[in-house]
Amino acid sequence: MIRVTALTSGQYVPSARFRIRQHIHSLRDMGIYVREYIPIVNRYALLPGILRNVKHNYVLPLYAFWGIAKVAVCVPGIISSWNAQVTWLERSLLPGYLTLEPLLKKPLVFDVDDSIWLSRPFGRSATIQIAKHADTIIAGNKYLADWLTRWARDIRIVPTAVDTDRFRPTDPSTKSTNKFFTIGWTGTASNLVFLYDIEESLTRFVQNHKYTFLMVVSDAMPAFRKFPSDKMKYIPWTPGCEAKAIRQMDVGLMPLPDNKWTKGKCSFKMLQYMASAIPVIVSPVGMNTEVLSMGNVGLSAATPGKWYEALDEIFHHPKWHMEWGKTGREVVKRHFSSKVVSAQLGSIFQDLT
């Protein structure tokens, strides 16, 4: 049996859940035992609310203490790595900094699913140093791999996987017969800004189409400026509700601006929709374009006018919903399912031992 120590970012951090935790059971079936160390303080957690209101001269010491606390809770995982055969590090121990990563036992697998070198204040230098220290880098897409390859001994492109047993189409026998057209978006609160970018198009569409509404699944209520509140359904995100909520959608959205950060995105929400046999409308940015090229799974939209047109096309052609949804699920099952990706990861760990 191959023993692996995995250090992740937090209990509900998507990269921890979907790039590491969901593979633990499948890897065990391959003889690879992964012990995950989840920090009690999320690496991306802000200062507790009461501490954000302290006097100005105490702010910097508090932030320093908070950063030290986040690193300190990783120490048990670092110690455990010395009793394992492989160490699996999801991103860095503290975003934007190089801290105790050089103390991790090798061989080290550095798992990167975002443009983390853009994190302030020292993300670039920290990412480069960790990449140099790693024996293998797992990059979530080609854009990330191309950036990291200059400092990598070995680099593999491994996508973020979708559990196609959880994210699955609605059973036709239980499908609702209501006449409403549901536009869907799911994501963390920090990514709601991308949805706001197409608010104008969404507002115009629901105002011009009577039986339509927007479903938002997130850990925070969206704060639209103009979108009509009676046309929106907000579902508070929980691990148990996300797959069920997506199955209620008629089309799934993934808007993104085109910049260095978003080019590193791994198209995960797009893949969740597709696994659920939902057609997609996405910005043609980074990996989104690659996935769109794999089959007729939906439409791309780069301008407010194009977003409106894409919604209108899918609304008026319900047959596309079924055809594109079916194709999308097949693409995910062939290339992005947790079963396929677990096998890729298992091969990497076997190569290192």
Notable characteristics:
353 residues, alpha/beta, Rossmann fold, six-stranded parallel sheet, 16% strand, globular
**Helix content estimate:** 25-40%
Q: Ranges with pLDDT <50 over ≥5 residues?
A: none
| Chain-averaged pLDDT | 94
CA-atom Rg in angstroms: 21 Å
Count of strand segments: 12
Note the overall shape.
globular
How are the strands of the biggest sheet laid out side by side? 2-1-3-4-5-6
What is the ordering of alpha helices and beta strands? EHHEHHEEHEHEEHHEEHEHEHEHHH
Q: What's the total helix number?
A: 14
Assigned CATH superfamily of the largest domain:
Glycogen Phosphorylase B
**First CA to last CA: what distance?**
10 Å
Q: According to CATH, what is the topology of the largest domain?
A: Rossmann fold
Give the DSSP E fraction (strand runs of 2 or more residues).
15-25%
The CATH architecture term of the largest domain is 3-Layer(aba) Sandwich
User: Structurally, how many domains make up the residues?
Assistant: 2
Major sheet, described briefly? 6 strands, parallel
Structural class: alpha/beta
The top-level CATH class of the largest domain is: Alpha Beta
